[in-house]
Design goal:
Elements (H helix, E strand, L loop, with lengths): L4 H7 L3 H7 L5 H53 L5 E2 L7 H4 L4 E2 L3 E8 L16 E10 L2 E6 L2 E7 L1 E10 L4 E2 L9 E15 L9 E3 L6 E4 L5 E11 L6
Parallel strand pairs: 1-3
Antiparallel strand pairs: 2-3, 3-4, 4-5, 5-6, 7-8, 7-9, 9-12, 10-11
Length: about 240
């Protein structure tokens, strides 16, 4: 049986005819696909940016809290030694007369007597036998400085301000130590720490900070966009008021 010419043409199409018969995407379908991909990309990009910003903010907060913890730890460790006497012939009267805590609202100075050739508590490389260890803390260029004799050591960075308050034997807080050193009972410390990075999403406004114990404003931040955190602690003096 002979095959009809028309049937042969239908079964064996040319390459051009086959391409013409293939179905593809319409222009509307392509536009819709592009729009959907753009929306998904925008959602993913926005989520990534928001996550990165939150991570940076959390890192700033952690760093500020860490700086505050380190500063409070070292201050408490040293100040609790104020008025201490390490001597074979221990004399409690020296605790009230020989080692006086002095200072102001921005700096504290203190000392203790050491008569032990095995110790070098002030870090000057010389045994402390027969000498008085003198210490002080103050703020310099946003760094908390520990002064031990001739040695000055930065112990915490990005600290904007520090405020010392002094509690006397009547329970009153003041910005200066009592005239009679034996009447001192505790020292309150308030610190303001600053983030290392500026947050451009924060409003640029000035903010006052109060001393946690005297309630006096001791620092007003500039109108910038840095995040700041304040903290305070009370350091009881073990060797005073005995």
């Amino acid at each position: 049986m002979k095959t009809e010419p028309s049937m042969t043409r239908n079964r064996y199409k040319t390459r051009s005819e086959a391409l013409l018969d293939q179905k593809g995407f319409t222009l509307i379908e392509l536009l819709m696909a592009i729009v959907l991909v753009s929306i998904i990309g925008a959602i993913i990009s926005g989520s990534y940016i928001a996550g990165t910003r939150i991570k940076a903010e959390q890192e700033d907060v952690v760093e500020m809290q860490q700086n505050l913890r380190v500063a409070f730890y070292l201050l408490a460790r040293d100040l609790r030694m104020a008025g201490y006497e390490l001597n074979a012939n221990w004399d409690p009267s020296l605790l009230r007369t020989a080692n006086v805590v002095t200072g102001s609202s921005t700096q504290v100075n203190f000392s203790y007597v050491i008569s032990n050739a095995q110790l070098d508590l002030d870090g000057d490389g010389v045994p402390d036998a027969g000498q008085t260890a003198n210490f002080s803390y103050n703020l310099n260029n946003r760094e908390l400085i520990r002064n031990a004799g001739a040695t000055q050591t930065p112990v915490a960075g990005n600290i904007n301000a520090i405020s010392f308050a002094y509690l006397d034997n009547t329970g009153v807080w003041a910005a200066a130590p009592p005239a009679v050193s034996s009447n001192l009972r505790a020292i309150g410390v308030t610190l303001v720490a600053q983030a290392a990075r500026e947050d451009r999403r924060r409003p640029a406004v000035a903010r006052p900070f109060n001393d946690a114990f005297t309630d006096a404003v001791f620092y007003t931040s500039p109108a910038d966009r840095f995040r700041r955190s304040a903290g305070s602690t009370v350091i009881n003096l073990r060797n005073f008021g005995l």
